[in-house]
Amino acid sequence: MQSAQHIPPIVAIVLSTYNGEAYIVQQLDSLIAQTYPHWHCYIRDDGSKDSSIAIIKSYVAKDARFTYLEDQLGNLGVVQAYFHLFNKVDEDYIAPCDQDDVWRADKLERSLNLLTTIETEKKIPALVHTDSDFVDSQLNSIREKFIGKRGLKKGLNGIIIANSVQGGSILFNRALNNESKKISAQLPYDYHLGMIAELTGARGFISDNMLKYRQHNTSSIARSDSEILTKSDQTISPSLQLSLNHYRHVKHDFNQLDWTKAAKAQVADYLYLFEGSNKLKKLFILFKNQYAFYRRKDLLSLIGLILKHDNLLSLVEQ
Fold first, then answer.
1. Dmax over Cα atoms in the chain, in whole Å?
2. Nearest-CA neighbor of 200 among 130, 292, 264?
């Protein structure tokens, strides 16, 4: 008899759909094409008015690895829909999936190989994310690397100001899911999970493009991501404002968790940037920690704001 330790783990792929008929077939086909075949995809529809449900049911009928979850909860919205799905699955590994992306065939295999390494034998809370090719509705490349160099910055400082964890690229373990349930889900799930992984466990990044991240007229997430990176030359750009607004979540949302010693020191530095009064110390913290920013202009703008204001609290949207 084969011992339990050699049985390949089942990965729970969770997918929330909403009016996705135009692109969902390509994504579901890319799941079937995965080189790691030991997965089960749980799909919940968030109130589609098109043929999404019929398409989903056709895949359920032809491949037992697909399950359609029906309920009476109505439209939860993209953030709460995914947190709901995370609470519904029992597998040791979970991979969020966006209806209009297309996964590379080895995405699950490579992500799982890295995740099982960084979670260690203790199975600490851990997450792996990847880069992606940012594409248009026809899968033509808009930008070769969506995350790019900021994904290579290790530790909490790589995500605390500018989140590099793209939701549809993630694979995380049961330990991280359990930690996530201890606090209220107020943030987009990618930043929420990425922060918890860094505060309590480990995060790994695969710099290769493991999916095509599609931008189109009905994709609110891709559209807003694009705007964050490109819009505005004002002092506080949309991307910098988003970074500043992370403060209130870091300050208040994660305190119920057992942070690592390194994370405690990094958060203390981060909070001083907003709350401290010594401008030279804040500039020292800024350069010492080499934070990732959405744009280089945001770093220069933040330096200006630090020199101009006694603290940054008035710049955080409440």
1. 69
2. 264
> What pTM was computed for the model?
0.91
Chain Cα centroid distance, residue 282: 28
Distance from C-alpha of 86 to C-alpha of 98, rounded to nearest angstrom = 14
Taking alpha carbons only, the member of 212, 182, 215, 210 closest to residue 196 is 182
The domain ranges of the chain are 4-227, 230-315
Give 18: exposed, middle or buried? Use CB within 10 Å, 0-12, 13-18, 19+: buried
Average pLDDT over every residue of 275-290:
96
pLDDT digits 0-9 by tens, 37-56 = 999 999 999 999 999 999 99
- Following CA atoms 274, 126, 111, 163 in sequence, which dihedral angle do they give, to the nearest 10 degrees? -10
Tell me the C-alpha distance between 198 and 314, whole Å. Answer: 27
Tell which residue, 6, 27, 3, 4, has the closest CA to residue 17: 27
Estimate to the nearest angstrom the gap between the alpha carbon of 197 and the chain centroid: 11
Local structure of 238: helix, strand or coil: helix
Alpha carbon 221 to its chain's center: 12
Fold of 4-227: Spore Coat Polysaccharide Biosynthesis Protein SpsA; Chain A (3.90.550)
Question: Alpha-carbon distance 266 to 195, whole Å?
Answer: 12
